[in-house]
Amino acid sequence: MVEIKNLTKQYGQITAVNNISFTANKNEILGFLGPNGAGKSTTMNMIVGYLPPTSGQILIDGMSMNENPKEVKKKIGYLPELPPLYLDMKVIEYLKFVAGIKEVPKSEREHQVARALSRLKITDMKKRVIKNLSKGYRQRVGFAQALIGDPQVLILDEPTVGLDPNQTMEVRNLINMLRKDHTIIFSSHILQEVSAVCDRIVIIDKGQIKAVDTKENLTGAAEGDIVYILKVEGECKSVEAVLKKISGIKNIMEVNYVDEKTSEFKIELEAEDVRKEIISEMLENDMSIIEIKKMTMSLEDVFASYTRGRSYSGLATEEIDDDKK
Predict the structure, then answer these.
(1) What are phi and psi for residue 283, nearest 5 degrees?
(2) How far apart are the first and last CA of the chain?
(3) What pLDDT is attached to residue 200?
(4) Which pLDDT belongs to residue 314?
(5) 265: β partners
(6) Is the distance from CB of 269 to CB of 249 less than 8 angstroms?
(7) Which of 20, 66, 149, 297 has its CA 20 to 30 A from that of 219?
(8) DSSP output for 149-191
(9) What pLDDT score was predicted for residue 320?
């Protein structure tokens, strides 16, 4: 449905987007994930035709944005990070105005406006002046204008920014509902948002695509290191000295003092079976293992590994059953 081929955007000597390619399939929610300044909004603005690319192609349903910009734009609904609202207009006046700009046939305008109001649960706000609405309701009005014209593709740039948790959940539910009729590209720097609603994830950093895959495949592909949390009852320096003698331990990554008798170590192993040697050495030195947990990669860690180098902070842990030790 959406094909991006070798897309580049340059501002003088600065390359904001550098030769990126990806696709979004029909009825798919594609997450576009990256830190601030990664090139997300620039890419969104090129896809919707607001910014011309320096080079590359944008195809929507097989039609080229370069060759048929007007027809292609009719297939796209766009919610920018700052919704394009006329604050002195009433909600219903604004949506009717948008319907006119989008050249929705007059016979369909009332129906489309009413449908958008209903989907965003703002029908009871339709006669309110937009400047008198809360930020959450303004965001909904901006979302409603994106739906006018029944676009095949929705481009959502940070759609939950500034919303409270309940409003954020409502927007997530709405996005999942809209997938029945639309292909959705959902841009965010908030990992939880992308993880909650997207089928596949594009990770972009410094204008370049770093990865494109499902969340499951991304986290699975990132699992290359064998990292454990080891909590031991014993004097910290003595435990550390024992661990350093075990050849199968690649690295003692972190040491935490739990209390006077207990220490916690984050260790990287050469192989899973090194655990047996660790347990044996601890017992031989009268040190009791209180807990041993294997660490698994989260989306946060995958994101960190692609955008600023590998990081193990905040990794999820998986407790190892006694019968697996």
Answers:
(1) -65, -40
(2) 49
(3) 94
(4) 42
(5) 230, 255
(6) yes
(7) 20
(8) T--SEEEEESTTTT--HHHHHHHHHHHHHHTTT-EEEEEES-H
(9) 46
